[in-house]
Design goal:
Layout: H1 3-16, H2 28-41, H3 54-61, H4 65-77, E1 81-84, E2 90-93, H5 113-136, H6 141-155, H7 159-175, H8 180-197, H9 204-222, H10 226-248
Antiparallel strand pairs: 1-2
Helix pairs in contact: 2-4, 2-10, 3-4, 5-7, 5-8, 5-9, 5-10, 6-7, 6-9, 7-8, 9-10
């Protein structure tokens, strides 16, 4: 590589290094999407310029090329990047200021960074606590069957019904925690989170990942694995948080 090419590469490395970093194993897709969205929002790669190669992005994020391509596919479907083939091909930025502005489903209210962060932090506290309490309890046969039925419903749900059935699963976990106060607090918080989720695309890859986590979570709860239930739920919440922060903040 020539001296000028090396210098250009170094400048690109410098401008992206504050944002692109290795993601956690449990939420690689969501965190990678969040970080590349930040690159676009911050204008680190301006409109019309090419993103780093797939190899470089995958290496920086410590994810597989397959996962990276799923991330880029989502960005392309949202009209934020485009893929070009050929000698001078690659993934080019099509993002313009305002492309990721929140679009409420039924009103005109806007959200702030504080709104998003507060809802997500409180949600994680309640969700992790509920998972831990459920795993520590001796759930009876009827309670266990309720959890299995809720999980099965989300697995077979059409996209249009997924969020409602996902909400039912999480509300059931909160109810079975044995704390009515926690369950009531979670119901209000979940309504806030769903309002935020309604402002971003429903991503099939994220839903598949969520289903895998749901199954692992129920296994841990039904086996009485308190530590495992807590960690799976924390990873699950982190994935959702990464998507919401990526699109809305």
């Amino acid at each position: 590589m020539s001296g000028s090419a090396q210098s250009g590469q170094a400048r690109e490395d410098d401008r992206l290094s504050p944002v692109l970093r290795p993601v956690r194993a449990g939420s690689g897709f969501e965190e990678a999407l969040e970080q590349i969205l930040q690159v676009l929002r911050l204008g680190l790669v301006p409109y019309g310029e090419r993103l780093p190669s797939e190899r470089e992005l995958a290496d920086r994020l410590r994810i597989s090329r397959v996962t990276l391509r799923e991330v880029l596919k989502v960005l392309q479907e949202q009209g934020l990047v485009e893929s070009r083939r050929g000698r001078y091909g690659g993934t080019f930025v099509r993002y313009r200021a305002g492309d990721l502005a929140p679009t409420p489903s039924g009103g005109t209210s806007q959200v702030t960074d504080v709104d998003v962060d507060d809802a997500l932090r409180f949600r994680e506290v309640l969700e992790v606590g509920a998972a831990e309490l459920c795993a520590a309890r001796e759930l009876d046969g009827e309670q266990r069957e309720r959890l299995r039925a809720c999980l099965a419903a989300t697995k077979d749900a059409p996209l249009g019904d997924y969020r409602r059935l996902d909400t039912r699963l999480h509300l059931t976990l909160a109810e079975l925690s044995g704390s009515p106060s926690l369950a009531a607090a979670y119901a209000g918080t979940r309504a806030r989170v769903n309002d935020l989720l309604d402002r971003i695309p429903l991503l099939v890859r994220n839903l598949e990942h969520s289903q895998t986590q749901h199954a692992a979570l129920l296994d841990a709860i039904l086996e009485g694995d308190v530590d495992g239930a807590r960690e799976v739920m924390r990873e699950h919440c982190a994935g959702t948080a990464a998507l919401l922060r990526g699109f809305l903040t």
